[in-house]
Automatic annotation (TrEMBL):
Residues 2-121 form the RNase H type-1 domain. This is RNase H type-1 domain-containing protein. It holds the Pfam family RVT_3. It comes from Brassica cretica (Mustard). GO terms for molecular function: nucleic acid binding; RNA-DNA hybrid ribonuclease activity. Transmembrane segments: none annotated. SUPFAM superfamilies: Ribonuclease H-like (SSF53098). Gene3D superfamilies: Ribonuclease H-like superfamily/Ribonuclease H.
Length: 145
């Protein structure tokens, strides 16, 4: 599950992802902030890219999920999104590393962990990058955890 968080007024954009096993148990989490991106879709693309880069270290048999239907459309038909061509080229290269790459839609209510990680990273007032098996105390916990 991946998510990006963006507002025009924040210094940072936030991205987050959660890797769950086939039973739905969280195996790994990632949260990070980046200098503000141009749009919310840029943040969503960054979240997917970062999740893919991290999953390469663990297993290339992954299914990715997002609550952003535009992100799914971008990955499915990159030529239809010329303003994102540079970012989508990177995603296409990463896709080649995943023999059965799939990105699916997950309703926002079921993407709460990645959403919370992204929102909290966005609101952090200094550089943040965390990957771990559990949420640290200083990161606010979403209700689902």
């Amino acid at each position: 599950m991946v998510d990006g968080s963006w507002t025009a007024t924040n210094q940072f954009s936030g991205i987050g992802w959660a890797w769950k096993d086939s039973l739905g148990k969280i195996q790994l989490l990632g949260t990070r902030n980046l200098q503000g991106r141009e749009t919310s879709l840029h943040s969503e693309l960054e979240a997917l890219k970062w999740a893919m880069e991290n999953m390469l270290q663990h297993s290339t048999y992954q299914r990715f999920g997002t609550d952003c239907k535009d992100l799914i459309a971008m990955v499915a038909d990159p030529q239809a999104w010329p303003n994102f061509s540079t970012e989508l080229e990177v995603i296409q290269i990463l896709q080649m590393c995943f023999p059965e790459f799939r990105i699916i839609y997950i309703p926002r209510a079921q993407n709460g962990i990645a959403d919370s990680l992204a929102r909290n990273a966005r609101s952090f007032h200094r550089s943040l990058c965390f990957i771990g098996c559990s949420i640290l105390v200083w990161l606010l916990r979403p209700p689902q955890v």
